[in-house]
């Protein structure tokens, strides 16, 4: 929401957005889907009823996918700043006039999981236990990671799914300890990951932990404490410090939002907003179907890098960043 608001502020401040011969002022309407698919469809309908021109969201793939059914039927474009499940665009619905409705400005798990696997392989990994939280995001990511590892000849010594509210991993980790893999891969979010890694350390597991963008957060560093040090994680996109105007964005963000730290996908939400506005300019219209029809022609240099989309609605040439958790996230590699 903050990323979108900054983009709206910047565009309105210039005062030069003219569509159909009229000056246009952007207004953001924010809704909270609570990371819940059912709430997500309720929120989607509220936005449709509010007659928004387009949507930036949602955060989680498991919410973005069902919400897209609502948006597409209404002729609305949805640009996710964070949903990485390949199915979001692969199974995205078309608008009544046949335009693609699901777009994203991040790389997919079909890119993220193999990139993370590639990095671990370069460090000599031989065996991995793979676990997930049974959500669309977590399981999908873990499946992609398992597939990439198997293709490289790495031994998958354990493959388990638990629930996303799990608080006791010890029975499962006792089994893992007996096998002693090089890594435990977690497909899921930062809160459960912090519990998992703490219990790994309590049981004396020598295995390190690896995960993806759901865990590659400041919240994970805060919740996991000393237990999280050394965890390897990935993010779909460039880190803020590697973006050409990242420092300027950080300064503006912290000034605007009273010292809040930049949230991981705020720069992506910022560029998602600009992508929608670029489509408005191309279409010379603020009508949803016209914006949807113009989206394939969008091409500009964004905060996160070049913004253009393939025929599915995925960003072209999405980068994957690999980090190690220390007192902060430290960049190890960028894979394109």
Describe the secondary structure blueprint for this structure.
Layout: H1 2-14, E1 18-19, E2 22-23, H2 37-49, E3 55-56, H3 61-73, E4 78-80, H4 87-90, E5 102-104, H5 109-122, E6 127-132, H6 136-151, E7 155-161, H7 170-179, E8 183-187, H8 190-202, E9 208-211, H9 218-224, E10 232-236, H10 246-256, H11 266-283, H12 288-294, E11 299-301, E12 306-308, E13 320-325, E14 329-335
Parallel strand pairs: 3-4, 4-5, 6-7, 6-8, 8-9, 9-10
Antiparallel strand pairs: 1-2, 10-13, 11-12, 13-14
Helix pairs in contact: 1-11, 2-3, 5-6, 8-9, 11-12
Commentary on this structure:
The chain has 336 residues and is of the alpha/beta class. 41% of the residues lie in helices and 17% in strands. It contains 12 helices and 14 strands. Strands 7-6-8-9-10-13-14 form a 7-stranded mixed β-sheet, with helices on one face. Helix 2 packs parallel to helix 3, helix 5 crosses helix 6 and helix 11 packs across helix 12. The two termini are 27 Å apart. The model has no long low-confidence stretch (mean pLDDT 96).
Q: How would you state the average pLDDT, rounded?
A: 96
- As a percent range, the share of strand residues is 15-25%
Let me know the largest β-sheet: 7 strands, mixed
What class would the helix/strand composition place it in? Answer: alpha/beta
What is the tally of helical segments?
Answer: 12
Low-confidence stretches: none
């Amino acid at each position: 929401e903050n990323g979108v608001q900054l983009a709206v502020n910047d565009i309105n401040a210039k005062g030069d957005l003219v569509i159909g011969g009229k000056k246009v002022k952007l207004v953001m309407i924010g809704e909270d889907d609570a990371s819940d698919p059912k709430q997500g469809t309720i929120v989607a309908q509220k936005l449709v009823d509010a007659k928004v021109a387009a949507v930036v969201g949602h955060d989680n793939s498991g919410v973005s996918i069902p919400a897209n059914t609502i948006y597409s039927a209404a002729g609305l474009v949805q640009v996710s700043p964070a949903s990485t499940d390949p199915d979001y665009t692969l199974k995205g619905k078309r608008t009544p006039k046949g335009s693609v409705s699901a777009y994203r400005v991040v790389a997919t798990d079909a890119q993220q999981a193999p990139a993370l696997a590639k990095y671990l392989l370069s460090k000599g990994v031989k065996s991995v236990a793979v676990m997930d939280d049974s959500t669309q995001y977590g399981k999908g990511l873990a499946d992609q990671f398992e597939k990439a590892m198997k293709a490289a000849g790495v031994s998958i010594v354990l493959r388990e799914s638990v629930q996303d509210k799990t608080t006791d991993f010890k029975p499962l980790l006792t089994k893992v300890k007996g096998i002693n893999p090089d890594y435990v891969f977690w497909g899921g979010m930062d809160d459960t990951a912090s519990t998992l890694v703490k219990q790994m350390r309590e049981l004396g597991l020598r295995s390190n932990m690896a995960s993806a963008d759901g865990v590659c957060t400041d919240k994970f560093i805060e919740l996991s404490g000393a237990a999280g040090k050394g965890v390897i994680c990935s993010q779909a996109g460039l880190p803020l410090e590697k973006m050409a105007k990242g420092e300027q964005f950080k300064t503006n963000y912290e000034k605007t939002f009273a010292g809040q730290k930049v949230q991981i996908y705020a720069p992506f939400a910022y560029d998602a907003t600009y992508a929608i506005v670029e489509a408005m300019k191309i279409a010379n219209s603020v009508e949803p179907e016209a914006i949807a029809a113009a989206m394939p022609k969008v091409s500009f240099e964004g905060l996160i890098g070049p913004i253009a989309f393939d025929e599915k609605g995925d960003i072209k040439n999405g980068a994957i960043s690999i980090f190690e958790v220390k007192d902060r996230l430290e960049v190890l590699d960028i894979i394109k």
